[in-house]
Structure formats: C-alpha cells, structure tokens
Amino acid sequence: MTNADTTLDALRAGLPVAEAPVGPIEVSFEFFPPKTEKMQENLWAAIKRLEPLNPKFVSCTYGAGGSTRERTHETLVDIRNKTNLEPAAHLTCVSATKEEVDEVARRYWDAGIRHIVALRGDSPEGMGEKYVPHPGGYAYAADLVEGLKKVADFEISVAAYPEIHPEAQSADADIDNLKRKLDAGASRAITQYFFNPEDFLRFRDRVAAAGITAPLVPGILPVTNFGTVCRFSAACGATVPGWMHKLFEGLDDDPTTRKLIAATVAIETARKLVSEGAREFHFYTLNRADLTYAICHVLGVRAQAEAAEPAEPAPASA
Asked: What is the DSSP track for 38-85?
C-alpha cells in the first residue's frame, strides 16, 4: 500500500463515503473578476450552475493594488442584480488612502452590497514581496475592519491561516492578529486553503484556546491544475503534502484523471472535517463549477428540486 493510499484511508475513517453527513451544511463560493469575454462566459456559467445550491454568500476577489477594482465592482453588482445570490466584496488596504477605500465601500453599500471580505492584501510588487502600508491608508486588516464599520454596518469576514501567515512572527502572534480583526467588528474568519485536515483541526483548537468564539470557516480549494497550485502554495505558505504529489504524479497530460483525483481529495478532506464538527465551508472555485458542485452534492448540499423526496408514483388506471 502506498503512502497516498494510507492517507486517503485515514481521511475516510471519519465517515463512510456513501453516507450523507448528519445535519445541514452551509457553503459559500469565491469567484474572481473576468478579464476577457470568454472568461466572462465561464464565470457566469459557474455562477448559474452553483446558484441553485443556495450558498450563504458568494465573494469576488480584489486584485493586488486594487488592479481589478472596477471589474470586481461590476461583477458584484451584476450578481446582486441578476441572481438571487448574496454578494460579498473583497477589499484590501494596499495602494489606497483611507478616504479612497471608504469611497469604494460606500459604492458597495449604495449598490446594495452589505458584506465585505476585509483583507490586508499583498504588496503591489507581487506575492512574497515585503508589505509596506500605504501612507494615509489602513495599515492592516484590523484597521480596515474598524474603518469599514464606521462607513456602514457591513457584515465583515476576515482571513485566517491554519499554517500561519508567512509574515507572522509566530503562531501565537498570528492568532492575536486574528483576534484583533474580530474584536474590530468582523463576524467570521475564512481560512486559507489547506490539504491536511489536521492542520485545520489543530488551528481550530488553538483559536478556541485563545478565547475566540466567532465561526472559523475552512477554505477548500479543488485542485484543477496541480503545478499551478504548487507554485502558488510555495508563495503563500500553504503546504502541498507529499502524498498529493504522488497522487498527481504522471498526470500532466491527463486532465480527466486529474479531475477525478482532485474531487476525491477535496471530498475526503471535507468529510473528515464534517466528522470533526465542521458545518460550513468556503470553496475557492477558480470560476469553475464542476468540482465544487460535486463536492457539495456528496456533502448533502443540493438544489431544492434535488433535495426533495421523490414523489410517489401515481396508481395505474383500472
């Protein structure tokens, strides 16, 4: 038996694979603003596919340095006006004064968007470069949360890092920062993606021990391109375990098998967390619906028509 086999067997130990979890599961989805007409079509295909699952909210990312500010705003307003979904806007501290950030927030409020995902953001020079607060801007996410609450009574989500933020001085300092964000007015924390369920569970225990009671929502990334995930993870501090490398080995030119394995890994991870009490998940969709939809289906998150009990067949005519 390979190490990959052993890892998947361990993940399965929490719940039989064919048995739906007990109790309702809530989900939310993250999208990014499209750059081209084709990407726009893909985004809306994903939104329409996932909308019937009735997510708690859907969020849209905000590019480094506010580079996608207008596209993010347009996407969220379209979601607000053209769907029944509750949109949430990502907003960062970088490359803007407090007044500029506040004006963006007011535009969202005026457009009917009441939920902000408040983030410090990465350096405009790129992920991995040293972050320097903008002069006259909000220095860190806790400051941003406090400022947004003065603009309007937004619901605010913030980020959390099961494997510690790469720039944090220590695990304790990272949790202290999370507590500051929540104390400033945020109502939940959504985690960076992870691939070892134990990383989230240990982090959840440390967060609880620190006296934090706000919901901690695990972020799930279904892997569509393993090489890209490895490169991105190296920059953001997320571990790609050795067993995943073995699972995806030799599949660079086999997208069908990659997709099947990606779904299996994400499903087993989510089900392990459900067995440990998790009841809410945030999916990083990458503007693709198929894997996220499949995972939700296994977790019992269904469109209303799917979830309904089948009707009894009508009696045959005499």
From this structure: HHHHHHHHHHHHHGGG--S-EEE---GGGTTHHHHHHHHHHHHHHSS-
Would you state the pLDDT for residue 318? 34
Tens-place pLDDT, residues 162-194: 999 988 899 999 999 999 999 999 999 999 999
Contact 46, 31 (CB under 8 A): yes
- Which tokens belong to 287? 């503007």
Mean pLDDT by runs of 10 across the 318 residues of the chain is 52 51 86 93 97 97 69 93 97 92 96 96 67 86 97 98 92 97 98 96 97 97 92 89 95 93 94 94 97 95 66 43
Active site residue 198: no
The alpha helices in 194-310, defined as continuous H runs, are: 197-209, 226-236, 242-248, 255-275, 290-298, 304-307
One-letter identity of residue 255: P
Sign of CA dihedral 117, 178, 203, 165: positive
> Does an H or E element contain 220, and which?
strand 216-220
CA distance 92 to 108: 14
Tokens of 28: 């939310």
Question: Which residues lie across from 92 on neighbouring strands?
Answer: 119
Q: Pick from 213, 210, 191: which is nearest to 270 by CA?
A: 191
Tokens (6 digits) for 106: 């007011």
Residue 148 to residue 153: CA distance in whole angstroms: 8
pLDDT recorded at residue 134 = 80
CB-based contact 245:4 (threshold 8 Å): no
Contact 104, 152 (CB under 8 A): no
* Residue 155, C-beta contacts closer than 8 angstroms, at least 6 positions apart: 88, 114, 115, 116, 187
User: Which of these is catalytic: 30, 51, 86, 163?
Assistant: 30
